[in-house]
Structures are given as structure tokens and as C-alpha cells.
Specification:
It is built from 9 helices and 8 strands. By secondary structure, it is α/β, with parallel strands linked by helices.
């Protein structure tokens, strides 16, 4: 897989303490990137960092606290990062919550839309000045196959008029994809070298799928791994999106196998719903209003 060198690049990976985020962080670190693991649970973050350092003792890996369900935490993280680092080559919007019981973020948003989409929208907006000042930087936003057939429930974004966990997960992942595409269009309109690319991991056996965890019977794990791909394969579309010299911005990367569920990274075709410009613009405007974050191109 042809790729740009990561040596000396500075990266942020949200949700880097497990699953696809940890696999991405490990690959970046072993290839010489400076990795900032942006995590909600700082202890789990340190444990994940120690795992990486054990195999790659010279890797530059830092842990910083970030709660994507809290706009104050997002702003504070961005301020601390910009005080500490003069550049940002790669922002990997990876963290996600999947199908929890109905809950709200600190700011009153439905948890999945609030964390998966609005949290990353706000984070990217706060970090845009640093991304813009770093030549050829990239924003990679992780979506999901669940975006297919999903809708944006503008009249019920907070779920108070009814909540179905999987529908709201699909909404958050459609929002991720529409955000990534709209961001790339705006970056190009303003003549910026920063690119925005979306990706999805296929169906990966990460901790989003809590299939009984360690206590699941072995035959069940065997069946799951036959149909799901391991986290290191699930991370390949993210790594490809972050490093491939062939990309121009605005692409959607996923596995190349049957149904895009497994395989090696390739350019995928998103659901036609993602090209609805009126919905995309409304989503952007609503996201700015809800988060109070505007993008200063």
C-alpha cells in the first residue's frame, strides 16, 4: 500500500485506547508519527500507550483527556493541544458510541449524535486554524455501513420524541459522512491544502460489538471472526485515508470485499442520500448553532 511517510508528522486520534483507534495509533507510532491519544478514560489511555511503548520504546505517544460528549472538554482539549504543538498533520475523528440506551450528553444532545457527530464537528472546528497552518494536513472521519438508509431527524435530534438506538446510530454515521464531504468542499472553495476524507471499517470485531466479551464461547467467537474482520484490518481504511498519495479529498474509503464488510481499503460509493445538498447544508448550519463552533476558513 503506497503511502506518504508518517515520520515526524503530528496526529490526534480520538478513541485511541481500543479497537480501530488503538490499531491506528500503533501503526502511526511504529512509522514515526507523534501520536496524541485523545481519550475520555485517561487510565485506559495510559494503559494503551504503555502497550504501544512496550513494542516501540522510542515511539512518541502522548495521552490527553477528551470527552466528546462535553463541549467544554472539547474546547479545553483544543486549547491545550494548540499551546503544546505548532502543527497538526492528521486529525482522526475515530471515537464512537454505538446503540446505547437513551442518554444525553452534558450539553443535552442525544448521546450518539452528540458524541459521534457534534463532538467531532466541534473538535475539527476548534483545530481548523492549526490544520490550515500545516501544509497538506488531513481530517479523516470514521463513518459506518450503518449510514445506508439512515436519515437526519431534524425535528427530533435530541430523541425526546422517540428513540431507537440503531436508527440514531445510523443518523450519527450519516452525519459523519456528510460532514466529511461538506468540509472537503469548503476547504477546496477556500483554496486550502487540508483535505477531508471519510472512511468506514466494514464490520469489525471491536469493542463496539459487546458479544459477551471474554466470556463468549469459543465457537461463537469463531463464527463472529468468520464474518467480521479483526480490528487491525478494520483500521486499514483509516490508515489508507490518512496516508495514500492517490487521494484528492472528499473520498469515502472502505474494505473492498463482498458488501464492503471485509477486505483491503479501496474507494467506496456512499449511499445516494449523502449527496443531498440541502440536507448537508442544513446539517452544517444546525451543527454550528448547537455547538456554537463556526469554521474560520
Amino acid at each position: 500500500m503506497e503511502q506518504h511517510s508518517l515520520y515526524g508528522k503530528t496526529s490526534i486520534i480520538t478513541g485511541a485506547n481500543s479497537g480501530i483507534g488503538l490499531e491506528t495509533a500503533t501503526t502511526f507510532a511504529e512509522q514515526g508519527a507523534r501520536v496524541v491519544m485523545a481519550v475520555r478514560n485517561i487510565e485506559k489511555g495510559y494503559a494503551a500507550r504503555d502497550l504501544i511503548k512496550k513494542d516501540h520504546p522510542h515511539a512518541e505517544v502522548e495521552v490527553m483527556e477528551l470527552d466528546l460528549a462535553d463541549l467544554d472538554s472539547i474546547r479545553f482539549f483544543a486549547e491545550r493541544f494548540q499551546d503544546k504543538f505548532p502543527s497538526l498533520d492528521l486529525l482522526i475523528n475515530n471515537a464512537g458510541v454505538m446503540t446505547p440506551p437513551y442518554a444525553k450528553t452534558k450539553d443535552g444532545f442525544e448521546l450518539q449524535f452528540g458524541s459521534n457527530h457534534l463532538g467531532h464537528f466541534a473538535l475539527t472546528g476548534h483545530l481548523l486554524p492549526l490544520l490550515s497552518a500545516t501544509p497538506d494536513s488531513r481530517v479523516v472521519t470514521v463513518s459506518s455501513l450503518a449510514h445506508k438508509g439512515a436519515d437526519i431527524f431534524f425535528d427530533n435530534l435530541d430523541g425526546t420524541s422517540g428513540y431507537k438506538a440503531m436508527k440514531f446510530y445510523g443518523q450519527s454515521k450519516l452525519a459523519n459522512l456528510m460532514f466529511a464531504q461538506e468540509l472537503d468542499e469548503r476547504l477546496k472553495q477556500h483554496g486550502q491544502s487540508t483535505m477531508s476524507i471519510a472512511c468506514h471499517p466494514g464490520i469489525s470485531a471491536t469493542n463496539l460489538f459487546k458479544f459477551g466479551g471474554k466470556d463468549a464461547p469459543n465457537f461463537m467467537k469463531g463464527i463472529l471472526y468468520k464474518f467480521l474482520q479483526p480490528a487491525d484490518m478494520g483500521a486499514l481504511p483509516t490508515i489508507f485515508a490518512a496516508t495514500s498519495p492517490s487521494l484528492k479529498g472528499g473520498e469515502y474509503i472502505g474494505p473492498d470485499g463482498k458488501g464492503q464488510r471485509k477486505g483491503y481499503p479501496a474507494i467506496d460509493t456512499p449511499h445516494p442520500a449523502t449527496s443531498n445538498k440541502a440536507v448537508s447544508l442544513k446539517l452544517w448550519n444546525v451543527s454550528e448553532q448547537l455547538t456554537g463552533v463556526t469554521f474560520n476558513f
